[in-house]
From TrEMBL:
It is found in: Cell membrane. It comes from the Eukaryota. It comes from Pleurodeles waltl (Iberian ribbed newt). Transmembrane segments: none annotated. Binds GTP saturably and exhibits a low intrinsic rate of GTP hydrolysis. This is GTP-binding protein REM 2. Belongs to the small GTPase superfamily. RGK family.
Length: 195
């Protein structure tokens, strides 16, 4: 019986040598209560393409996933709302991401109204960079308390030039697609997987 993998001690560090290489840092942004931590938790529970134990610090989740037959190592940061009196963490967040997931709740119009401001802040801190940004309308399962329609979500995403996806962290709906989409958006910009 026994475990098939060797348990090599360098497994944490080996991701830099993967094809398509390195860690892809994904920042979760958005208002309080929209479901960032729930989405991060789902990401943390994703089955890995290789059963190895990778790092999982508090609020930071690292997973290796297979996207279009190619492995990617994502590190998801759920630190946007950390105790941060001088805004240092948020500034770092805006500077260090390889991709951004901006989350609002489809049941909370206020969280949706904040999206534009957040996106402008991001674009201002990374001028002239074509950042992979995915707008997420979460809590799509709460049909009866929906305040933002799919169409509204889509049209804001078009206006702000980012991708749009609706998820339900509660039902685990469209969540894998979200993280796969993040990888694809990064790869598109790096020109790695164009046929
Ligand atoms: P955060 O402040 O953005 O990290 O939001 P949380 O992940 O802490 O979620 C806030 C609340 O919304 C919690 O009670 C979650 O259980 C709930 N929640 C998160 N995502 C969903 C979802 O997709 N559907 C429903 N029904 N509830 C959700």
């Amino acid at each position: 019986v026994g475990s098939p993998h060797s348990g090599s001690s360098d497994s944490v560090l080996s991701s830099d040598s993967l094809p398509g290489g390195g860690l892809l840092k994904v920042m979760l942004l958005g208002e309080s209560g929209v479901g960032k931590t729930a989405l991060a938790g789902i990401f943390a529970g994703l089955e890995e393409s290789q059963p190895q134990v990778l790092q999982s610090a508090e609020d930071t989740y690292e997973r290796r996933i297979l996207v279009d037959n190619e492995e990617a190592t994502l590190v998801v940061y759920d630190i946007w709302e950390s105790m941060d009196s001088c805004g240092w963490i948020q500034e770092n967040c805006l500077q260090m991401g390889d991709a951004y997931v901006i989350v609002f709740s489809v049941t909370d119009r206020v969280s949706f109204n904040k999206v534009t401001e957040l996106l402008l802040r991001l674009r201002t801190s990374r001028p002239n960079q074509d950042l992979p940004i995915i707008l997420v309308g979460n809590k799509s399962d709460l049909v009866r308390s929906r305040e933002v329609s799919r169409e509204e979500g889509r049209s804001v995403a078009v206006m702000l030039n980012c991708k749009y996806v609706e998820t339900s962290a509660a039902l685990d709906h469209n969540t894998r697609e979200l993280f796969e989409g993040v990888v694809r958006q990064i790869r598109l910009r790096r020109g790695e997987t164009r046929e």
